[in-house]
Amino acid sequence: MLLFFLQVLVVLYSIFLPAYSWSQTVPEKLNAAFKNFANDPQLRNATISLYVVDATTGKVVLDKNGRVGMVPASTQKVITSVSAYELLGKNFQFQTQVAFSKNKEAGTLLIVPSGDPTLGSWRWPGTSEQAIIKKVSQAIQKATAAPIREVRIDNQGWEGEAIPDGWIWQDIGNYYGAGSFKLNWHENQFDVYLKSGKNLGSPVSIAGIQPFLYGYSLQSKVIAAAPETGDKAFIYFPLNAPAGVIRGTIPVNQNNFKISGALPQPLHQFVRTLLDSLAKEEAKISKNVPIIPSSNISAADYVPVCTVVSPPLDSIIFWLNRKSINLYSEALVKTISYKNKKVASTETGLELIRDFWKQRNIPESELNMVDGSGLSPLNRITTQAQVSVLQYALKQNWFKSFYASLPVYNNIKMKSGTIRGVKGFCGYHTGSNKHQYIFSFLVNNYNGSSTAVVQKMYKVLNTLK
């Protein structure tokens, strides 16, 4: 009888120990790991915030500076993504319309863009540059045999500024600093291929540019650096100038070293590419066709030719988070503004996002955003706000799509963020104890290697496994 009683105790002990052990050890282990991290010399002058909740129980596991405004870098994209799901809808699609003037003598081709950031993107077969140009050019030829004498672009409702506040000069000439226009093309990106010699400090030449840049030229002032020094070359396009310059370094002995830049005027790039395609198909194209942005367009004067529809929003958000595409984030913020206020403005879009979350008990002061992507160092977000947004997402019918969009780092499903002196992670993880954690971990103003900081952050997050 005594033996049976002891066996029952052992079974009960084995059942209830894990839950008891979790409540005692996981917060303690996490707290100890955080203290070790904060005391590391690399974080001597840093500001650190870590906020963790247990989604299974709803309890706060750790709150370290959870309400301190931090520079979030690209972890801010989770806020933009979740907001877009709610304010635009999972199945939202951009539509770019093409029409031709009823008056054949006018010969006006009209393009009505929608801010679609996927137009000409290589990420979907149907959005590729070749697919879009083929579809539009064939539709134009089928619709009319009249000559094209001018191209008008409907720019109604779109603010003139493509670049949000706070983006730095070193960023905006490069692919990740591409602005969001009413007409975006090829993700507003082009590639430059550089060739370096054998000697340190020798000049680097431009071997090629894809696609061809209409109306713009580039000059290389890049020099060759030591092997394995990587890409330290940056493209600078002076405002309203037809020429840019590449400065910095690439390693020696490179024949086709690729860097990517931001198209200065994607609208002109798209139209010229389209007109060249039509000309090759022997369509009637006048010489020196002008491209005329206009805010005084009457739809009654035109006959529709075709409509180009983007992939649905959840597919766009998949790539937005997987590849951290700043252009997609900025386009969604402006589209939120346009859908609700009929004016595509970054500032208005962010106001609508803050108001949405304010109604869900996240103070506006915890979402001090100046862009949608997190590229600006002026952003200030709290880790508590980020976790609250992720908690909200967990309960929505589109959550599976959002969750699928998050990359995996260190075997944890989370969005990363990186700009100079800033590293962050936020996301979800289900531990071995079957508890699901939601966390946001931001570090500002660390010193030394970003790789070293990341490994130390992983060590803290590993206590959740």
Q: What would you report as the Rg, rounded to the nearest angstrom?
A: 26 Å
Overall form: globular
Largest sheet: 6 strands, antiparallel
Question: Looking at this structure, what is the CATH superfamily of the domain at 25-90 and 315-464?
Answer: DD-peptidase/beta-lactamase superfamily
Question: Which fold name corresponds to the CATH topology of the domain at 25-90 and 315-464?
Answer: Beta-lactamase
User: Which regions contain 5 or more consecutive residues with pLDDT less than 50?
Assistant: 2-6, 8-23
Helix content: 25-40%
Backbone structural class? alpha+beta
State the total count of DSSP E strands. 19
Report, as a whole number of angstroms, the end-to-end distance. Answer: 40 Å
Beta percentage is 15-25%
Widest sheet: strand ordering = 2-1-19-18-17-16
Q: In CATH terms, what is the architecture of the domain at 25-90 and 315-464? A: 3-Layer(aba) Sandwich
Can you write the helix and strand succession as a string? HEEHEEHEHEEEEEEHEEHHHEEHHEEEEH
pLDDT averaged over residues: 93
What is the CATH C-level name of the domain at 25-90 and 315-464?
Answer: Alpha Beta
- Number of helices in the DSSP assignment: 11
